[in-house]
From TrEMBL:
Residues 38-48 have a biased composition (Polar residues). It comes from the Eukaryota. Its cofactor is L-ascorbate; Fe(2+). PROSITE patterns: FE2OG_OXY (PS51471). One of its GO terms (molecular function) is jasmonic acid hydrolase. Keywords: Iron, Jasmonic acid signaling pathway, Metal-binding, Oxidoreductase, Plant defense. PANTHER family: OXOGLUTARATE/IRON-DEPENDENT DIOXYGENASE. GO terms for biological process: defense response; negative regulation of defense response to insect; regulation of defense response to fungus; regulation of jasmonic acid mediated signaling pathway. This is Fe2OG dioxygenase domain-containing protein. It catalyses: jasmonate + 2-oxoglutarate + O2 = (1R,2R)-12-hydroxyjasmonate + succinate + CO2.
Amino acid sequence: MSCLRLQDWPEPIVRVQSLSDSGLPVVPDRYIKPPSQRPSLDSASPTESSIPLIDLGGLFGDDANLRASIINRISEACTDWGFFQVVNHGVSPVLMDQMLQVWRQFFHLPIELKQVHANSPRTYEGYGSRLGVEKGAILDWSDYFFLHYLPSSLKDYNKWPALPNSCREVIEEYGKELVKLCTILMKVLSINLGLGEDYLQNMFGGDDIGSCLRVNFYPKCPQPDLTLGLSSHSDPGGMTLLLPDDRVAGLQVRKGDNWVTVKPAKHAFIVNIGDQIQVLSNAIYKSVEHRVIVNSAEERVSLAFFYNPKSDLPIEPAKELVTPDRPALYPPMTFNEYRLYIRTKGPCGKSQMESQKSPR
């Protein structure tokens, strides 16, 4: 694909928040999903079956049995769900609250102050309202802000919001804390795969990894049964830490043929496996489809922190996990090459992962 396709959006950008604020009684056609993709809201209340909730407190203590038990629970969650929630993770609850607060304030600034940060498909960095550059695509009911945190060469404070006043400092501190938590979780995943504890981190580039933040804003929607805040997809990167809005549920995770609505725990992070760890683990761990529903009564803000491999390193199944019975499922590919697909097509379930599989 030529980069010319990615210079600008194919159609004028409409901010979903402005549609919602206008009080329109119906969802415009551009946002109406085909019947097979529409959410079933009668089953959208959080179910008894939900993703595992894991207390990480014991990981940092001296009790070897407790530590082993936590590591084992994470292993089961990665195998059974691809998703889990963590509490007592070491990130300050005050910082988590501040982060949600500054972004709620940002999205309620006057439109002209947000438009200064309007993004393009070239980097996605900034204030956006669509993924994918296909003309006429059915869009999601959300706006977002995307920014790079690592590597330092891509971090540009001038592209981060200057308002509200403390925004840049809070983002910087938050990013630092989440990188720390991600490195701990990467060790746990490596141990659980039977690899050296630094294996995954080294495959990602050691200290030279990528990380970025996508802040999602889901405005109130007049017909939430016709659309989605974010279409079904698996995350293209390595691992995601989501800080949800714990006041209102919206994330749904695919479990078999069902969609399970996640009930967020207070001051928890929702952790999920991305496509790059599915590749490195030779699909022992799977990145799982998820999507976001919207509602007519409440807006929502959530923050997805993506922890990714260095963008130009070839990622392929770990040699230790390739056997005659389980050959390598995926050819080597860099994260840069891989994510170009989602930046062109937008979220498309697991079709991207399936298309990468090595021919048998």
